[in-house]
Amino acid sequence: MAEDGSREIEKSLLHRHTEKHFTAGEIVRDIIIGVSDGLTVPFALAAGLSGANASSSIILTAGIAEVAAGAISMGLGGYLAAKSEADHYMRELKREEEEIITVPDTEAAEVAEILEEYGIEPHEYRPVVNALRKNPQAWLDFMMKFELGLEKPDPRRALQSAFTIAIAYILGGLVPLLPYMFIPIARKAVVASVILTLLALLVFGFAKGYFTGSKPFRSALQTALIGAIASAAAFGMAKAVQG
């Protein structure tokens, strides 16, 4: 009865306490990959073509083509990466399942070793080991998570990653091209593109730092600096080749 009462108190405390953890890490990672490349690559391309004295229409056409190709390439890369992770998980799951059946004592010893690493004494972890041996599915889940460090992937993850990265790339890639849509003179358009893109990089870098737990202002400056270096290098190389 005392144990039941204690358990009810624990449930009540858990019900009243809601932990505010950020759980959309994979989506944010995909957005960061897509937007960072989308802002930087078309930005450098537009700056390079501007340095070669190309017209705004040519720069815009080339930029849109690059954004389309880049979005497809980046999205496909995200899909293949997520699919590879899922395939790796399934291979390890099958192997671990076979080992629990064929060498249960060895796997039980591995459970004990894992628990020992957390400072749990033998008399404390033996009941846990025995309980897991009676529940093969829980045992398998435990080994996947704590021995191999693998989380079960979302079956929709591959497609979700592909679309997220591709859309983020398109949104990021359109930013440096916007001035070329409205300013026919490339020399003027490139100035507006630089200002607009650097502002976007600062905002994006700040948001990236905020969501990833790093220093937002430092992240903003680093992101803008990388974009500025890329565009300056492309512009300078175009000028050097032309000259």
TrEMBL record:
Q: How does it sit in the membrane?
A: Multi-pass membrane protein
Record-level GO cellular component terms: vacuolar membrane
In alphabetical order, the GO MF annotations are: iron ion sequestering activity; iron ion transmembrane transporter activity; manganese ion transmembrane transporter activity; metal ion binding
Record keywords: Ion transport, Iron, Iron transport, Membrane, Metal-binding, Transmembrane, Transmembrane helix, Transport, Vacuole
The record's listing under InterPro entries reads: Ccc1_fam
The reaction(s) catalysed by this protein are: Fe(2+)(in) = Fe(2+)(out)
Q: Does the keyword DNA-binding apply?
A: no
Q: Which GO terms describe its biological process?
A: intracellular manganese ion homeostasis
Q: Where in the cell is it found?
A: Vacuole membrane
Tell me where on the tree of life, at the top rank, the source sits.
Eukaryota
Instruction: Specify one Pfam family.
Output: VIT1
Transmembrane ranges, per UniProt, are: 58-82, 162-183, 189-207, 219-238
Q: How does it assemble?
A: Homodimer.
Family label: Belongs to the CCC1 family.
**Functional note:** Vacuolar Fe(2+) uptake transporter.
Relay the domain remarks. Answer: The cytoplasmic metal binding domain (MBD) is located between transmembrane 2 (TM2) and transmembrane 3 (TM3).
Q: What is this protein called?
A: Vacuolar iron transporter
The organism of origin for this protein: Escallonia rubra
